[in-house]
Amino acid sequence: MKTLQNIPQMSTQDMNNSDQDSEPKFRPVLHALTANPGAEMMRYADGKKDIITLGQGEGDAPTPDFICDAVAQALKDGKTFYGPVLGSNELRECLSDYYQRIYDLEIPAERVFVTSSGSTAMHLSLAALLDKGDEVVAITPIWKNLLGAVELTQASTKQVSLDYIDDQWQLDLDKLFSAVTEATKVILIVTPSNPTGWTARLDELRAILDFARERGIWVLSDEVYGRLVYDGVRAPSFLDVAREDDLLLVVNSFSKSWAMTGWRLGWIVGPRIAEDKIRDVALYNKLCPPTFTQYGAMEALENGEEFLKDQLALWHSNRDLVVERFKAMGNVSMSYPASTFYAFFKVDGEDDCIALTKRLIDEASVLLSPGSAFGKEAKGYIRLCFAVSEKRLTEALDRIERVICK
């Protein structure tokens, strides 16, 4: 039997090699993830005093009481146990009714899959569709987190940018279709667009879906901002032109319309053949959406129209204020967004959006999001979220003007 005395001693070199071998091993894809400039800018601003934050996609209104009260009652009633993987039957039926009432569409409850956040809805969709070596054609500018979610699947992304013509963002369908290859598995689109406010027309949606249908390609549509329009009740949706069995997944969220960003609750609408597959992926992801928060979601769907109307009135006024102020500055260009609560603008002579965003933090104490966070062709632009009080927005614009109009 060996004793402590006759066990061979390790050399310093052996100990160093052992330390290296014992280092935690992570998936190579995590080391290759591209940086998120928007998140990096938030870290840069962290801890600085008197910062006005307009860099995130949310307003400053808290979730309204009637939604919170429904959740408080659910908690009192003991609604704290595991629930169905794809959401409660009650909420799925409520979403089906919502599509009938607001969209005039017949969407059966079994085609609605409730998720713990719109981001999770996107991750579940991508995980169900993509393998290593697959390709996603994404219309940009686009929220960086969606591109990062594709990276995690080890699929590749081909970016097709909207064109900026005559102060408007426009989609070139020929450019989009020519980007598709045999490796393309998914066309990814956000409409209305974060960050540009561009919204696809019904004929554009139909053309994309017809093209994808002919080639057996999935369309993955992020329609989180579908209710944030300033003309009409809602934006055109792929669901308006889709067949029930189309290879189409539409992602949505409770976050923006009803001031529920921190609640992390969303949903997917898909074909019936997707229900079991999305359930399989969700089962090993979060098991189920939070049970009690779903009662707040139902309250939002059934009684949240007046709150949304009031929010849209504020955002409409704020949009006009931003457009007027930037126009008066004389060195800022931006489109007139027909939807969302974002101004995506460019300052003459300022091509480095990272440097300018840092200057605005350092010299104006205003946090915005650099355009490079939204795709390769968005460098030089900056995104401002105007879903805040008029007073707060005015103060931010005053500070920005002092920096960019020196």
Quickly list its features.
14 helices; alpha/beta; Aspartate Aminotransferase, domain 1; Aspartate Aminotransferase, domain 2; 7-stranded mixed β-sheet; 406 residues; globular
List unreliable stretches of 5+ residues: none
Helix/strand-derived class? alpha/beta
Quickly name the level 1 CATH class of the largest domain: Alpha Beta
- Reading the helices and strands in chain order gives HHHEHHEHEHEEEHEHEEEHHHEEHEEEH
CATH superfamily of the largest domain: Type I PLP-dependent aspartate aminotransferase-like (Major domain)
The N- to C-terminal Cα distance equals: 82 Å
Query: Which percent band covers the strand fraction?
Result: 15-25%
Number of domains: 2
How many individual β-strands? 15
Radius of gyration: 24 Å
For the biggest β-sheet, the strand order reads 2-10-9-8-7-3-4
Percent in helix: 40-55%
Largest sheet: 7 strands, mixed
Average pLDDT rating: 93
Number of helices: 14
Named at the architecture level, the CATH assignment of the largest domain is 3-Layer(aba) Sandwich
Q: What is CATH's topology name of the largest domain?
A: Aspartate Aminotransferase, domain 2
- Gross geometry: globular
